[in-house]
Amino acid sequence: MALAASGGYFAFGIRRIEIFQIGLRKPNYKPPLSRAKKIPRTDTGYRVTDGNIAAIDFGTTSVSLAYTTKGDDEITNLRLDEEDQAYRVPNAVLLKKEGRTITVQAFGNDARTQFTQMRKSGEYIYFERIKMLMKREENVDRNMLVESFSGEKFYLVEVIAFILKYLKNELMKKFSETARPLKTTDFDWVITVPAIWNARGKRMMREAAYLAGLMTGYDGISSFTSAALSVPREINPDRLSLALEPEAAALYSQEKVGDQIDVDPATAVIKRPSDYMVIDAGGGTIDITAQIEVDGNIIVENIPTGNAWGGTKINEAFSQLLQHIVGDSEFKSFLKPEQKSQCKATLNKILYVDFEKQKVLLGNQKSTEVAVALPAMFVRHYKEALTKVAKKENGVEYDEYTNDTLYIEKEVAESRFFGPAIKGIIDCTLKAIEENGYKVRTFYLVGGFGGCKYVHKKVKAAIEKAYSSKGCSCDVIVPLSPQLAVAQGAVMWRKNPEKIKARRSDATYGINVSIPFDDDEHDEYYKFYNEEQKQDKCDYVFSVFLEKGELVQADQVITISLTPAYQSSKQITIGIYSTPNLGVRYIIDTNGKSTVTKIGQLVIDIPNPDDVPRNERHVDVTMDFSGTEIQAKAKYRITGEEVKTVCDFLSAQ
Ligand SMILES: Nc1ncnc2c1ncn2[C@@H]1O[C@H](COP(=O)(O)OP(=O)(O)OP(=O)(O)O)[C@@H](O)[C@H]1O
Ligand SMILES: [Mg+2]
């Protein structure tokens, strides 16, 4: 199939895909003053796998692990809870301190139950839903802290590392029992991340994997660090890749629909579509992607979009109502410092265990009201307020005589709790549909929240309404086991990542250069005189690698050649910048304020013992934006020295 780009289009089988999303450019848009070149890639993007792949879906509320081994066609989910026979378990971890040494005492439901029943947390440290801290808009950095339920603070990256290490050990336990034991280093590992995350969140997961020893024979993290963290040792970096959650779910959904068609075309829901959109509605994130599949190859057609209206918002809405009923914002009076961890555990049980069960029943349309039995400790503290206020709330009742249970009518729960979150999903879905120009006719709704019947009903109705207003129809499908779609799809993706031929850039990326000053083109503010070169130059020019929305082909890399500003320069530092905007021409405005954000840097030594003239001392910068993580390198032609980015996106800037 032809995969060459010609003019403003990319030929994809019989399709022609626009390279730029012109629609994103505002009317006053001006093209960049400098643009990098695209050249064919010479190395492979991903390590070729031996066939042993393990993928971890590290979700906000839950975690699962899927794997396959060499010669095995099947993808298997690892059972993470023997008692419940569950493949997907809560993202909850109970750690135990013994001196400085930390071990994982329990994970999932087990961790939660043990912690909730503890009279004193003492040497135990408990965390739940820690991925919530890593929203796209949060500028995470390596030294970001997370507070345990008892109020102690630890590095978030290290807590994630303990969880990854636990999951690695669980998989290894399974393989140690087999006739042909497999080791950690026999696997290619995948960790899934929301597509809407920026480079920092992704980098955090990668660094956590290094600390966990995921790609080495080492045991991995065994204690918390108290000093500031530095870049971890990167061993076997190519043994880990990050998969984008909705992309993985898309591959899974296509495969499931495909399987169904192969088995029984007559009863299949639809034909295997060539254009489809996936809405991954999880606990913390709504993450949307649209793909085009032609002859088994894929183009990711939209810029990742989504928001934070995941299922956890429903628990938060219930929490708000409860705070209102007891008249205590944030349950401040209940959370006594001397009993903080026990009180937090009690609240957590109400909101994320007892209410959670009711929410799932309601979501699956199996109940007619929400009934949450309140624990004695909570009732004792708020008895008076509970009886008084609950009576005044429409659709809310509190039974103080028989079972201390709070009842909420179905209609109230649906509109107050589910309503805003479903609106959140619908808003960003309709926006993605507009941007896609209604080309997509098939929607896959995945994730635990997406798989919920009530959400499916509402989201389906909203999408169908939008399509029928255009005089067309569409299908909104929940594939089998929608909560396992991400982990399974991530294994499918890792088997053949080259299948994805292009993605759209989520932001505008570039570097800072100075170029000869042009009176007609450049703003006086940026003019300076370079003594050595004896010419006026224009500083702070944003040399653009990629514009937001631009199609990034997997078989291309982006390159620019720089020379030092002065003959005496012995080192060159290249900052890498990004902006969500288009048409940015300089990295600062005429008030000296940054117009872009620095996301990383390359530092390269450029010695010059033979006194080669300045303009022959080329440093070639190559950047690869086509994968799931940004890779950058710089090479000094004279010495042949090359630096890859430490891709140090995580150091505070
Ligand atoms: N039947 C149901 N009704 C309502 N909500 C449900 C139902 N089943 C699952 N959920 C919700 O779905 C969410 C979990 O979905 P999922 O496991 O896909 O999230 P996650 O992967 O942990 O989070 P994220 O992808 O955002 O990081 C939880 O908030 C859970 O309460
Ligand atoms: Mg998820």
> What is the helical fraction, as a range of percent?
25-40%
Query: What would CATH call the homologous superfamily of the largest domain?
Result: ATPase, nucleotide binding domain
CATH architecture of the largest domain: 2-Layer Sandwich
Shape: globular
Rg, nearest Å: 27 Å
Tally of strands: 36
Task: Write up what this structure looks like.
Belongs to the heat shock protein 70 family. Keywords: ATP-binding, Nucleotide-binding. GO terms for molecular function: ATP binding; ATP-dependent protein folding chaperone. InterPro entries: ATPase_NBD, Hsp_70_fam. α5 (312-326) packs antiparallel against α8 (410-436) and α8 (410-436) crosses α10 (453-468). The strands form 8 sheets. Strands 17, 18, 19, 20, 24, 25, 26 and 30 form an 8-stranded mixed sheet that branches. Strands 4, 27, 28, 29, 32 and 33 form a 6-stranded mixed sheet that branches. Strands 6, 7, 8, 9, 15 and 16 form a 6-stranded mixed sheet that branches. This protein is an alpha+beta fold. The protein folds into 3 domains: 20-46 and 505-644, Substrate Binding Domain Of DNAk, Chain A, domain 1 (Sandwich); 53-235, 2-Layer Sandwich (Nucleotidyltransferase, domain 5); 246-310 and 422-499, ATPase, nucleotide binding domain (Nucleotidyltransferase, domain 5, 2-Layer Sandwich), CATH 3.30.420. The two termini are 44 Å apart. A hairpin with a 2-residue loop joins β18 (286-294) and β19. The chain has 11 helices and 36 strands. Adenosine-5'-triphosphate binds at residues 59-62, 131, 282-285, 310-312, 356, 359-360, 363-364, 447-449, 452, 483.
